[in-house]
Write a structure and sequence with these properties.
By secondary structure, this protein is of the alpha/beta class. It has seven helices and five strands, in the order αβαβαβααβαβα. It has helices at residues 12-15, 25-38, 50-59, 78-86, 89-92, 107-115, 128-144, and strands spanning 18-21, 44-47, 66-69, 98-102, 120-123.
Length: 153
């Protein structure tokens, strides 16, 4: 059994920003409070629509730790955004974990998400305690997970 890696020695991709694409201001505020309570070192960057997030991801040299995306958003929805990232050769090789984080879904929505190689699909919990538990599990999973993007070329 290996010993955990201290946060200060994690590769840059592990401490990169968490991109949250959420058009509802109340949900943004709740997520911001949740991340503050969990005290992760990652900066949280919010976007209200997928095109803004895509423009940022395309032009930045920063390597995001992960993307949490709502499904139902203005301009382009979360599925459309995932397809744009997945089909963009430069972005797909960056291997940024893309997780859907939404208020509800159905079987087809979950199947569609995984068909486009989303790395997770989560329903937003209704309580702060449950939300903190879900976010903690997501972040801790991805801190432990190895991805091609964390290795230098």
């Amino acid at each position: 059994m290996s010993t955990p890696v201290p946060p200060s020695s994690l590769p840059i991709t592990k401490t990169g920003p968490i991109i949250v694409i959420e058009d509802d201001q109340d949900d943004q505020d709740i997520l911001e409070e949740t991340f503050r309570n969990l005290n992760y070192p990652n900066r949280i960057i919010f976007f209200k629509d997928g095109l803004e997030a895509l423009a940022f991801i395309e032009k930045t040299d920063i390597k995001p730790f992960l993307i949490l995306s709502d499904v139902n958003m203005p301009t382009i929805n979360g599925f459309e955004l995932r397809k744009l990232i997945y089909n963009n050769a430069e972005l797909s090789v960056r291997c940024i974990p893309y997780l859907f984080f939404t208020t509800g879904t159905n079987k087809q929505g979950v199947q569609d998400a995984y068909a486009m190689s989303a790395q997770g699909f989560f329903i937003k919990p209704n309580s702060m305690t449950a939300l903190e538990n879900t976010i903690r599990k997501i972040v801790e999973y991805w801190q432990e997970c190895h991805a091609p993007s964390q290795y230098a070329d």
